């Protein structure tokens, strides 16, 4: 029991109180933003912006520059997604849809570009890359692509979040990052339920079209 408790609190013994408060805020906002995305609420973006901005700051202080870039990208894409969801398609609300072939190729391009850019950043800082860092880079490519698909309201973004979250979960656990481990476990469960919910929405939309 003590080992379990130590797993979650050991990393915070020498952490400044302000940083702990900021991490808790980022944790709560991160969970809230995923729930709001599941419910197709545009409020996910301002709430998510708080989470990504605070996370980027905390990761910068910790020296995880590659992951800072990931969260900086999330912040930028949050503004884009916020605009895109609000603007919709003309006067109508942006509908849930599946990615077409062109969008899938663009997503693949984002993944590949992300992998090489973050790899170059690690190299630029003379960071000795361990196997876990390659997993970090791979997952960053997945998350970058997922964020772009989410801005377009494509159901595929939930699949990418699920895969990426499942890959980073053991990584955070090995590193002893208890709060992040809990957060990504919750993210995974929410993403699975959100995928199922959006799939039902797509099925209803498909059923209604022939009737119109």
Note down, in words, how this protein is organized.
By secondary structure, the chain is an all-alpha fold. The chain has one domain (2-90, 104-211). It contains eight helices and no strands. α5 packs antiparallel against α6 and α7 (156-174) runs antiparallel to α8 (178-211). The N and C termini lie far apart (60 Å). The model has no long low-confidence stretch (mean pLDDT 83).
Strand content: under 5%
End-to-end distance: 60 Å
Low-confidence stretches are: none
Most strands sheet: none
How many strand segments?
A: 0
Helix content: over 70%
Structural class: mainly alpha
Tell me the Rg in angstroms: 18 Å
Average pLDDT level: 83
Number of helices: 8
Shape type? globular
Number of domains: 1
Order of helices and strands: HHHHHHHH
Task: Summarize the model shown.
The protein is built from eight helices and no strands. The chain has one domain (about 1-90, about 105-210). By secondary structure, it is mainly α.
